[in-house]
Amino acid sequence: MTSYTSYQARYFAEQITLKRPQSSYDSLASAMSGVKVDLNPHQVDAALFAMKSPLSTGALMADEVGLGKTIEAGLVLAQYWAERKRHILLIVPAALRTQWRSELSEKFYIDSILMESTSFNKLKKEGYFNPFDIKNQVVICSYNFAARKADELRRIPWDLVIIDEAHRLRNVYKSNNVTGKRLKDALQGRKKLLLTATPLQNNLMELYGLVSLIDDHVFGDAKTFREMYVAVNNAELRNRNLRARLGSFCKRTLRKQVTEYVRYTRRHPILQEYTPTTSEEELYNFISDYLQTDKLFALPEGQRTLITMVLRKLLASSSFAIAGTLNSLISRLEELLKGVETDLDLQDYDTFDELNDEGDDISEEVKMTEEDLRHNREGILRELEQLQKFANLASNIKTNAKGDNLIFALNQGFDKIEGLGGQRKAVIFTESRRTQEYLFNLLSNNGYAGQIVFLNGMNNDDISKQIYADWKERHKNDGAISGSRQADMKSAIVEEFRSHACILIGTEAAAEGINLQFCSLVVNYDLPWNPQRIEQRIGRCHRYGQKNDVVVINFVNRKNAADRRVYELLAQKFRLFDGVFGSSDDVLGSIESGVDFEKRIAAIYQNCKTAEEIQTQFDQLQAELSEQIQEKMVRARQSILENFDEVVASRLKECETNTVASLDKFTQWIYYFFMIHGAERVEPLEQWRLKFTDGDIERVYNLKWKDAEQEGDTFLRREDPLYESWLAEAIEQPLPPAKIRFDHTHSERNISFLNAHPNLRGILSIDKLSYEGIGEEEHLVFSVITQDGTEMDDDTINGMLELPAVLLGNDVQENEALQTIRQQRLDLQRQQVEESNKQYYLEECDKLDAYSEDLKEGLQRELKELKKAITEKKKLFRASTSLPLSEMLTMKDEINKLELRQKKMQREIYAREDEIDDEKERLQEEVRRKLEGNCTIQNIMVIEFEVI
Q1: Which of 87, 131, 326, 436 has CB 3.0 to 4.6 Å from 123, enough for a Cys bridge?
Q2: What is the pLDDT of residues 354-390, one digit of tens each?
Q3: Cα gap 177→179, rounded to integer Å
Q4: Model confidence, pTM
């Protein structure tokens, strides 16, 4: 067996655990070596950008849709996690909470908690004074919940806050933006990553709002920003100045710039139109008229808008979906007649609770008194009779025209997919669990029995339970089981879909947190009105890693004018169903919130009774969208936020080279460290596989996650208990000076430097310089003297230490020349740390200088306006010789008052400018104090070496 020494074990352990400068490739390689992510250069580039200055309070990550901002933020998060900085908060739209949780768990092996009312109150009861104070789980919560709990958020010393879909906060500068202001105040001074593909949509003030969330000391106040950058004549100069100011805060890469690294496939739409049966149409019209009634006792008044929207969606889904919900409405009225108010059961609509959470306009419910009941009894009875009639009609409908058309559409879709080279697999989305059940029976009776799996918010059916049990048995020893039934059930269903089933019928729960790149047929059986939700659905399949074009099937009711206009809007205005990328940033980002847009559509269904009214309302909505998607803003965004393609290409190429080099170095260190502890290299060698036997247990580790999955190996991560214990043991072992012989002749390594310098001898000292100040960083410092005076660089020394070696003894003599070189090398490393910190300091000073100049410019603008007014008044006075004396005296008096006001303003400006300068100096002094760090030196080893 190839031999190594304890000195090499210590060296590799130090390299593996070293706290490198956060913004270096080597530092990121440490965090990246244990994640299941395909690292694209633009993602690494973005992560390094976000961490480039330890003095920075954050960054705006603005890559186009589909480039993996989640991965970019995840890399930054993983870096913080590796550094034991674990007060981390994620604020995301409610619909994306579980997706983020799954991504962190599956790709980064980082645990998280969804903080919502239930979990918050549970932790309170368990004795947590502040449930947000969690150190070994990332906290994930929605915008609304975070805003409601702003006081609790404020008390936590967050190491990192990530805000997804951050364009929701772009109007934070406005006085009426309550949510934005609460979050900004609560998270003041915390390091923030804002993620959005649309940082600038309608107005340049949105950039001001987003940047002010990160740092209040970039631009002056909102009024000054508007005067300096919005109300200007020279847009080109303005854009150039803004670009310079935003350069250290905002990072944006375009999809067209990364096609060398990321392969994109296309979308192909299939429209399946259907005509409802007479009974279905009758049911639809009855319930639609019912929902437009002024007073309804079955719907709680405070939630009527929301519940009406849900009922319309269930009605459009299937007769089976609405039939069950009608029974819930009937039960509520029957209980109401007994004097009891009950909640409606709307859980058939999987995302009802989420919609409820998103709503800000739900009023306090007013309970019905006994007197109200007596007064309204006749009305309740009439409504009850009406609903029973609807329920009877619905229950008598045994088949749906849309369902019958599904069989034909599926066959058409499968033929198209096979022609494009894809598998015969389809994911069918519905908004109702009852519709899901209906489709299961329908498809089972039409040739797909035994080939269908379910995914919804519950998965309590017998098939899912069996799949889950089998999955747990298969994975009981490989670490795949997370302990969360919801997350593990999803994993089990997706695995079954990938391996055996050909159809997955999912509710909206299936559109969150799962990746289905192996499937390329998406069926929107029910079409959501929220374009962002549709994009999320299709994005389960049409995403990074998809090898085939994706086919999207949509259903439209020929007899429903509103349905047709909704589809037209989604297909033509939002361009969701065809092309390479789906909906563009310009379009999808033009809506502030998908939920709000959904409510606009719902209002049209609710308020329009004729086809003409429907057409008019949709025309108006389409016109509004056209106004929001402004060509002027598109041009401004390109000029301010986007780099030239050739600049990006050069940077990404450099990034790819450095990332691969850093990861290779790190992989080699881990490999040699395991070899020292008795591991054996196994075939295939190019996959970095290592076999280790611990007692009776033999385990094959793999340093590459994709190869590990393919071979069924254990993916090696820092958190492996055996690995961690070895690292701790190696670092704690004392190492006296020693003589070591390295064998280059018989090793698998071929180092050209050592070929050119045979029988090299010398003495090597390795020190660790640790810096604590604005951040923490460690550096290994090599000092070497060779017998023949040959100089060795760090890469050569690293190569030598990776060679097989034997320990010859410990009789190493003191070497004064080595001590001199050692001191020089340590001083040089200290200077390099100080030089880096000086650059950070100068960047902060430049930022604060520009900030204070903005404020002063704002003050001077007011004075200039006043001077201009005085000049105009004087001109009028000189031309007013024909006026009566009294009017001339009045005019002169006004001029005198304005001049007095000018003098007073001038004095106030001097005083205010002094205050601005004082504030700038105070802020710069704060920065300077942060730079006051402390360096410590630890000698790791001294070895006298010879290379044979």
Answers
A1: 131
A2: 666 554 443 445 567 777 778 889 899 999 999 999 9
A3: 6
A4: 0.73
Residues 594, 96 contacting (CB under 8 angstroms): no
250 in Cβ contact with 167 (< 8 Å): no
| Inter-residue contact 104 to 139 (CB < 8 Å) | no
416's tokens? 């198209």
From 451, 454, 456, select the one nearest 464 (Cα to Cα).
454
At the fourth CATH level, the homologous superfamily of domain 400-457+499-628 is P-loop containing nucleotide triphosphate hydrolases (3.40.50.300)
Q: Is the dihedral of CA 439, 441, 447, 449 positive or negative?
A: positive
What are the distances in angstroms from CA 446 to CA 352, 408, 427, 636? 31, 11, 17, 54
Secondary structure, 3-state, 439-483: HHHHHHHHHHCCCEEEECCCCCCHHHHHHHHHHHHHCCCCCCCCC
Cβ-Cβ contacts under 8 Å for 103 (sequence gap 6 or more):
70, 74, 513
pLDDT in tens, 228-237: 888 777 778 8
The span from the CA of 572 to the CA of 73, in Å, is 32
SS3 of residue 303 by DSSP: helix
Domain 37-261, CATH class in plain words: alpha beta
Structural tokens at position 388: 């029973």
The Cα 692–Cα 517 span in angstroms is 34
- Kindly list the domain boundaries of the chain, sorted by start residue: 37-261, 277-395, 400-457+499-628, 458-498, 662-733, 734-948
What DSSP character marks residue 683? S
Q: Which residue has the tokens 């998965």?
A: 459
Q: Which residue has the tokens 């590990």?
A: 708
Q: How far apart are CA 19 and CA 84, in angstroms?
A: 11
Instruction: Note the residue count of the chain.
Output: 948
Task: Give me Rg for the CA atoms of the chain.
Answer: 34
